[in-house]
Automatic annotation (TrEMBL):
This is BMP family ABC transporter substrate-binding protein. Residues 40-312 form the ABC transporter substrate-binding protein PnrA-like domain. Residues 1-20 form the signal peptide. It comes from the Bacteria. Belongs to the BMP lipoprotein family.
Length: 342
């Protein structure tokens, strides 16, 4: 059943840890004789965003290849839609008998909090914080501050100007964790470095994750002001940061996915590295757990130690930095270096 775990063994440990205080959660499975009917609801940008949503899609695609009889219905979100549409989307899948239902992104937290209690025999999972509690809800979480610390360290090591940037899709607590980790990493390597920070939207406005033109203008201002490395945590908007880096002959850092492989080929050469968030592994593991009746409710945290976050070496641009980054990574894993989430 866990073929994907075996495939990813070099990058991700097979087990995941249920966060302390949750007691492992209650099993949320009920026996099923029919094939799994999976409902998957995407965040803004959907499949094809070459970032966050595509990472979830990759986990589902791998599950289709390895888990017998899996059937999936994928539903997109629309930019600027009212919050009630997410509730309607999740409820419609539950009423149609989809089980489990996976929500990609924190914006679905209110929808799951509302719908999951009404369908106690349906299993739900949500990717990212905030945590949604319930006996039939699994929270797939990531220590993004740890991976972002390494991105900050890499940016500071590579920067010639001592001036780097950060562009976030919106000013939500989730994206702030990336910023906080990144700043800690930069300052650990270069305490006097200048860090330019910009967000494309307010905390509850998801449009910032699908505004590549706005992201391009924002990053362009940073590069013109002196930044030579910019880390983007902006979903589909990240394409705009890559475009600005290409125009400025500077570096950009990707997120969620190995974007030196997934971005437009015309800009891949400017992607220094990417903070990989193994959403694909988390989604696959969840579906495998549902299939073999081992899935639990509660928080499951994917961190550096568990291989849930990491960084990419594609392009060879940080080959010379790799030994130093690995030392920092091991210090975090073994608790000698603490990274605050905020």
């Amino acid at each position: 059943m866990r073929a994907f775990r075996a495939v990813m063994a070099g990058a991700v440990a097979a087990a995941v840890t249920v966060a302390a205080g949750c007691g492992g959660g209650a099993e949320t499975t009920t026996p099923r004789s029919r094939p799994l009917q999976v409902g998957l609801v995407y965040d803004i940008g959907g499949r094809g965003d070459r970032s966050y949503n595509d990472a979830a899609a990759a986990g589902v695609d791998e599950a289709k290849r390895n888990l017998t009889g899996l059937r999936v219905r994928e539903v997109e979100a629309a930019q600027g839609e009212p919050a009630g549409r997410k509730v309607e989307r999740v409820r419609a899948l539950a009423e149609a008998g989809y089980d489990p239902i996976i929500a990609v992104g924190y914006s679905y937290a209110p929808a799951l909090a509302s719908i999951a209690p009404r369908f106690p025999r349906t299993r739900f999972a949500i990717v990212d914080e905030p945590t949604v509690s319930g006996p039939n809800i699994t929270n797939l979480l990531f220590a993004s501050e740890q991976g972002s610390f390494l991105m900050g360290a890499a940016a500071a090591m590579r920067s010639r100007t001592g001036d780097v940037g950060f562009v976030g899709g919106n000013r939500s607590p989730l994206v702030r964790k990336f910023e906080v980790g990144y700043v800690q990493g930069v300052k650990h390597v270069k305490p006097r470095a200048r860090i330019r920070i910009a967000y494309l939207a307010d905390p509850h406005d998801l449009s910032g994750f699908d505004r590549p033109d706005k992201a391009c203008k924002t990053a362009r201002r940073m590069y013109r002001a002196g930044a030579d490395v910019v880390y983007q945590v902006a979903g589909a908007s990240g394409a705009g940061v890559f475009r600005a880096a290409d125009q400025a002959d500077a570096w950009a850092i990707g997120v969620d996915y190995d974007q030196a492989k997934s971005a437009d080929p015309a800009v891949r050469h400017v992607i220094l590295t990417s903070m990989i968030k193994r959403i694909d592994v988390a989604v696959y593991d969840y579906l495998a757990g549902v299939a073999d009746h081992t899935v639990t409710s509660g928080r499951i945290v994917y961190d550096l130690k568990r291989g849930g976050v990491d960084y990419s070496l594609t392009g060879g641009h940080i080959a010379d930095l790799h030994p130093r980054l690995e030392r920092l990574k091991q210090e975090i894993i073994h608790g000698r270096l603490k990274v605050s989430p905020g």
